[in-house]
């Protein structure tokens, strides 16, 4: 008799038997409103009929077509179709399975393409759990402690997390860019710096959107020093923030390398990295690849996902419902002294729990998240102190479902409040 390893930390006790749209169902038929979307993956909702049909059709035709042995039609079609959505100039793509693998690939590419070794990341960033990606991750020591030595050559600059820094958005941007300049002057010389890796919205690090001007400041410095700007849009991409890519909220910023995964294939393991062909050519041929990259069934799911995003106007819906969600979260926070900040972009929204002295309140965040699960609303925590509760519903979410989630959220916040703050 074996059991699941205790190294997996479960956010809820739910055993899902079936999923449909925004809902998961357990063995007793209990329905849960899923505002986790499998950590931002099921962008078109659980088991969207068009995605399921595409997967069924492809599964009967070709399950695996190893992409450095043979090419297959889904891979070629997806590559062509993604071209309609990629930032200008990023005309070359290849695929892996998980987000973390794509981050590893981008790290290898950055080092090959520049001949430089160092990489700069930002406080609170999350890029994955494999050793290279974990070395770029500073969203909490829980992702790094005890597994070292990590990959060397990583320097950390401040992220403009205004609330945590106690600064205005403008001050936070100035502080973070100054910090980056200091890192370039003191730790990682520009001539030794291959790339800057950044999430346009900190994900696991607490759902902190980069304020206006930050990405442009990074672009300017990257250009000035010949450093590559690598945008990790694993969690923020594919419409989640109300633009196809989150960095398009700052339209003049174009990355050198873009990493995507999660929402790309509605639940199938598929990640991709995009860059200009000229840059990709500087990597050593054969230096990238993998057994499962660009799996035909996952590519079919990605193509169906693109169709659904367009046909159902899901990027626009993410912007619209995201605004409704954020307004509702702010209204709940107005009556809840334990919530110190509400923030988000599109359908990435979060509430940060603080004690009366302003310190992070992980216990309340956890109680509220558990209370929500008891009430039938599935949520996740995040943040470097795990004191942030995030909402990431599928992009097919309706206004009625947002309102239902907010009603449950309000009850959960009351149920999980610190005793002295309970009404
Ligand atoms: C921004 C970001 N990058 C990379 C990853 C790693 O992706 P995966 O879990 O698919 O390896 C994640 C996962 O949460 C993420 O949010």
TrEMBL record:
Family in the record: Belongs to the class-III pyridoxal-phosphate-dependent aminotransferase family.
Pfam family, one: Aminotran_3
Gene3D superfamilies in the cross-refs: Aspartate Aminotransferase, domain 1, Type I PLP-dependent aspartate aminotransferase-like (Major domain)
Name of the protein this chain belongs to: (S)-3-amino-2-methylpropionate transaminase
Names of required cofactors: pyridoxal 5'-phosphate
Pathway annotation: Amino-acid degradation; 4-aminobutanoate degradation
Enzyme Commission designation: 2.6.1.19, 2.6.1.22
One MF term in the entry's GO annotations: (S)-3-amino-2-methylpropionate transaminase activity
Keywords: Aminotransferase, Pyridoxal phosphate, Transferase
InterPro entries (UniProt xref): Aminotrans_3, Aminotrans_3_PPA_site, Class-III_PLP-dep_AT, PyrdxlP-dep_Trfase, PyrdxlP-dep_Trfase_major, PyrdxlP-dep_Trfase_small
Catalyzed chemical reaction(s): (S)-3-amino-2-methylpropanoate + 2-oxoglutarate = 2-methyl-3-oxopropanoate + L-glutamate; 4-aminobutanoate + 2-oxoglutarate = succinate semialdehyde + L-glutamate
């Amino acid at each position: 008799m074996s059991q699941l390893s205790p190294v997996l930390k479960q956010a809820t006790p739910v055993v899902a038997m079936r999923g449909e749209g925004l809902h998961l169902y357990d063995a007793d038929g209990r329905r849960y409103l899923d505002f986790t979307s499998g950590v931002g993956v099921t962008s078109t909702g659980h088991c969207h009929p068009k995605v399921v049909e595409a997967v069924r059709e492809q599964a009967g035709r070709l399950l695996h077509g190893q992409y450095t042995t043979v090419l297959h039609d889904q891979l070629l079609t997806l590559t062509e179709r993604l071209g309609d959505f990629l930032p200008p100039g990023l005309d070359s793509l290849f695929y892996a399975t998980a987000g973390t693998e794509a981050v590893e690939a981008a790290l290898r590419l950055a080092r090959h393409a520049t001949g430089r070794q160092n990489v700069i990341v930002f406080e609170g960033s999350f890029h994955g759990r494999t050793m290279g990606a974990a070395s770029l991750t500073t969203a909490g020591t829980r992702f790094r402690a005890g597994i070292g030595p990590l990959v060397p050559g990583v320097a950390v600059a401040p992220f403009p997390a205004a609330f945590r820094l106690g600064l205005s958005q403008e001050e936070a941007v100035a502080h973070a860019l100054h910090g980056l300049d200091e890192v370039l002057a003191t730790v990682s010389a520009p001539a030794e710096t291959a790339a800057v890796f950044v999430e346009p919205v900190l994900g696991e690090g607490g759902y902190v959107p980069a304020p206006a001007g930050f990405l442009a400041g990074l672009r300017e410095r990257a250009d000035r020093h010949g450093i590559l700007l690598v945008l990790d849009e694993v969690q923020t991409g594919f419409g989640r923030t109300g633009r196809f890519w989150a960095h398009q909220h700052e339209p003049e910023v174009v990355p050198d390398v873009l990493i995507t995964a999660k929402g790309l294939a509605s639940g199938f393991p598929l990640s991709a990295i995009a860059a200009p062909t000229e840059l990709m050519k500087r990597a050593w041929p054969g230096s990238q690849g993998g057994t499962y990259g660009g799996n035909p069934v996952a590519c079919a799911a990605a193509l169906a996902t693109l169709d659904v995003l367009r046909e159902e106007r899901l990027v626009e819906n993410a912007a619209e419902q995201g605004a409704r969600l954020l307004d509702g979260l702010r209204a709940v926070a107005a009556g809840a002294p334990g919530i110190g900040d509400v923030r988000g972009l599109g359908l990435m929204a979060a509430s940060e729990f603080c004690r009366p002295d302003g310190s992070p309140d992980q216990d309340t965040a956890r109680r509220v998240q558990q209370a929500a699960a008891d009430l039938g609303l599935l949520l996740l925590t995040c943040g470097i102190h795990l004191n942030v509760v995030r909402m990431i519903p599928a992009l097919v979410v309706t206004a009625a479902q947002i309102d239902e989630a907010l009603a449950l959220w309000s009850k959960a916040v009351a149920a999980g409040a610190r005793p002295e703050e309970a009404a």
